[in-house]
Amino acid sequence: MGRTVSLVHAPDSWFIKGGADAAALGLALDGCTVVGVRRIGKLLMMDFGDSDEQASAVLGLRFGMTGRLVVDDHAVIEKLEYSSAREVPEWRRFELGFADGGTLVIVDPRRLGGVELDPDDTRLGSDAFGLTAVQLAGALGTSRTALKARLLDQRRVAGLGNLLVDEILWRIGIDPAREAGSLGRGEQGRLAEAIRSTVAELADRGGSHTGDLHLARVRGGSCPRDGELLDRRTIGGRTTYSCPQHQR
To answer: Cα(213)–Cα(154) distance, rounded to whole angstroms?
Structure first.
């Protein structure tokens, strides 16, 4: 907060989303001051304005599975399960330089994240961190879509990814292939609580992509709870692991 942008370096046009380009980012952010930082789901937003703290632009940051935020040469997360620990200059997809000499850099080997000027956060569903049973019931509705696919839809619930949903449903014992609208009120309440608690726990430990999940989530793995061989399926277009014994 309070730092003024003196440099906008966006060498990778693919990494700039929403129809903007490097010139537009520079025009909108250069000389502006960070007046706020907030988050909805997987979207981190930086508010920029003038010295009177009037917001004039918003920069949205997304990190995907392999993106890391590095502030003043300090990586917020040191290790990601599906990324690389190597330092490759070309992986520095976006950089802000500040007047005090500091920097904010997004390092992303696989280019799965992105930056966006003035993102439309109204398209996102309720944030997973504070998801209530009522909000979850609204997100699931009477849909016949697989529960996992519905939970991965950021328009329904913001902030849940593939590994995280597998972990949550494994913990609570619900089959990811069940129809989203088939959950009863009690199940919805338990699932909402499991989402909140699991998201908070993994956030404290660096997130789901640090690899800090049950180790059996691999091909041929067995459930740590009951020893059953895990099912490996594709649900909602994503590789899915679940236990056929206790997930119903």
So the answer is: 22
Helix or strand holding residue 84 (H, E): none
Q: Which CATH fold topology does 125-242 show?
A: Helicase, Ruva Protein; domain 3 (1.10.8)
Q: What is the CATH architecture of 5-121?
A: Alpha-Beta Barrel (3.20)
**Distances from the Cα of 237 to the Cαs of 122, 128, 166, 177, 234, in angstroms?**
25, 21, 13, 12, 6
pTM summary value: 0.87
Helix (H, G, I), strand (E, B) or coil at 15: helix
Q: How far is CA 83 from CA 116, 209, 211, in A?
A: 22, 9, 11
- Domains of the chain: which residue ranges? 5-121, 125-242
Element (H, E) at 71: strand 68-71
pLDDT tens sequence across 101-147: 999 999 999 999 999 999 999 999 999 999 999 999 999 999 999 99
Pick the closest to residue 128 from 165, 99, 91 (CA basis).
165
